[in-house]
């Protein structure tokens, strides 16, 4: 993620550059959304109408794709992102309890960011560690067999 300017004019200009670079791909919408999120840490709302216009899609179609995929954010994430697996295998191993413990420890709900902007908590639906559940992802690193004690240690480390 870069420290790009976030005025509507800057967003429009950079969005146009990204679209121009990717529009030749087959099915360019997802790569464009990924590139925008990489640029700003989220996909700015001001970019969606530009994408729709350039790709000859409706705003609803762009919004539908954006909201369908859980990894796209409409607001910036915290410095650290903790994702807890909510798929069935991890649920059977206690991820519901783990989610409650994380929400309590951080003082936020799922999709929330702590007031200091340090930690964002998100659900994820399968990390491929079904035999090592419950699992989590912390800043892109997958962690298996997460219990409440390990969760608290992870939170302490990233909040330090």
UniProtKB/TrEMBL annotation:
InterPro entries: NADP_DH_HndA-like, NuoE-like, NuoE_N, Thioredoxin-like_sf. Keywords: 2Fe-2S, Iron, Iron-sulfur, Metal-binding. Transmembrane segments: none annotated. [2Fe-2S] cluster binds at residues 85, 90, 126, 130. Binds 1 [2Fe-2S] cluster. The keyword Glycoprotein does not apply. Its cofactor is [2Fe-2S] cluster. It holds the Pfam family 2Fe-2S_thioredx. One of its GO terms (molecular function) is metal ion binding. NCBIfam families: PRK05988.1 (NF004638). Belongs to the complex I 24 kDa subunit family. This is Formate dehydrogenase gamma subunit. It comes from Albidovulum denitrificans. The lineage of its organism: Bacteria, Pseudomonadati, Pseudomonadota, Alphaproteobacteria, Rhodobacterales.
């Amino acid at each position: 993620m870069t420290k790009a300017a976030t005025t509507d004019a800057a967003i429009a200009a950079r969005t146009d550059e990204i679209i121009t670079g990717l529009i030749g791909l087959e099915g360019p919408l997802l790569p464009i959304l990924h590139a925008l999120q990489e640029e700003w840490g989220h996909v700015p709302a001001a970019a969606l109408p530009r994408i729709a216009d350039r790709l000859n899609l409706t705003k609803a179609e762009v919004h539908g794709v954006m909201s369908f995929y859980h990894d796209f954010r409409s607001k910036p994430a915290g410095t650290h992102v903790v994702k807890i697996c909510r798929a069935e295998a991890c649920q059977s191993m206690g991820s519901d309890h783990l989610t409650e413990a994380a929400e309590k420890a951080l003082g936020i709900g799922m999709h929330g960011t702590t007031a200091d902007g340090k930690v964002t908590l998100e659900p994820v639906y399968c990390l491929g560690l079904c035999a090592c559940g419950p699992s989590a992802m912390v800043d892109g690193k997958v962690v298996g067999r997460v219990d409440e004690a390990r969760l608290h240690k992870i939170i302490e480390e990233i909040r330090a």
